[in-house]
Amino acid sequence: xxxxxxAGAGGRMGRPLVEACLATAEARLGxxxxxxxxxxxxxxxxxxxxxxxxxxxxxxxxxxxLDDFDVLIDFTRTAxxxxxxxxxxxxGKPIVIGTTGFSTEEKALIAGAARxxxxxxxxxxxxxxNLCFKLLDxxxxxxxxxxxxEIIEAHHRHKIDAPSGTALRMGEVVAQALGRxxxxxxxxxxxxxxxxxxxxxxxxxxxxxxxxxxxxxxxFADVGERIExxxxxxxxxxxxxxxxxxxxxxxxxxxxxxxxxxxxxxx
Length: 267
Ligand SMILES: NC(=O)C1=CN([C@@H]2O[C@H](COP(=O)(O)OP(=O)(O)OC[C@H]3O[C@@H](n4cnc5c(N)ncnc54)[C@H](OP(=O)(O)O)[C@@H]3O)[C@@H](O)[C@H]2O)C=CC1
Ligand SMILES: O=C(O)C1=N[C@H](C(=O)O)C[C@H](O)C1
Fold this sequence. Notes:
- By secondary structure, the chain is α/β, with parallel strands linked by helices.
- The protein has 2 domains: 2-121 and 236-264, Rossmann fold, CATH 3.40.50.720; 127-233, Dihydrodipicolinate Reductase, domain 2.
- The chain contains 9 helices and 12 strands.
- A 7-stranded parallel beta sheet has the order 3-2-1-4-5-6-12, sandwiched between helices. A 5-stranded mixed beta sheet has the order 8-9-7-10-11.
- It is elongated.
């Protein structure tokens, strides 16, 4: 039985995370957290998630609940996740991080903490997206430098980072398969007289609209044919179930930086 704490319990991901945790026989909801000034503090976390009474009330101080959980699941904002990570590092608590939008320096900080702590960091916890990462690697190796590669993603109007963490990881997967460095070949949007396309570039296009949960397409376009690998999420529960699975998997592991490919045995 793994006891889990959910950060950002009132958020779009926080609520399905609480629900997924409560619905998993081998997991227990140990704690739920929100900002100190949040109207959710004091509410029953299960009721807030629409999953019925859990007996766990939303708190606002991670240090105060350290004895109540084994693994923290954090899908919040970069600054909040890094603050929670510092506390987990002191306390030796594993952490599952779903937050996206970290800078290179912030990713290095997380990697540093993983020398002392088991951490699962993944831009997408769905099984389908992680399968797509494998398919993209194969597609890029087979198609090679003959094709133009473009990554198109769409998300809801509230998303604050772009391109999505998943789109960036897709870019890294195809770039690595082709022996390119994403930082050198990425093109983030186009405007004006751009000139002809340089074959080695990997283009990103971002759509933000309505309530789109998360769509990703990688387009491999040759002359005469094109291949599209697409994933569409229709429920956040797919991410939440994956994160709860990751929390069960990471508990008791050696320190290290893991991702969902490790959890699913896809590496
Ligand atoms: N890896 C994956 O599979 C997925 C990752 N994500 C990522 O998860 C993150 C959250 O997304 P989403 O749930 O849509 O966002 P929301 O804005 O709905 O939720 C964020 C939550 O974090 C809380 N929060 C923000 N700042 C703090 C803080 N300083 N201290 C404590 N709590 C804080 C918010 O509280 P308040 O509302 O009071 O500000 C809110 O409850 C994003 O980075 C997103 O990209 C999303 C889906 C899947
Ligand atoms: O913010 C979201 O909603 C999502 N963010 C993740 C990302 O940035 O890749 C994953 C998912 O697509 C939903």
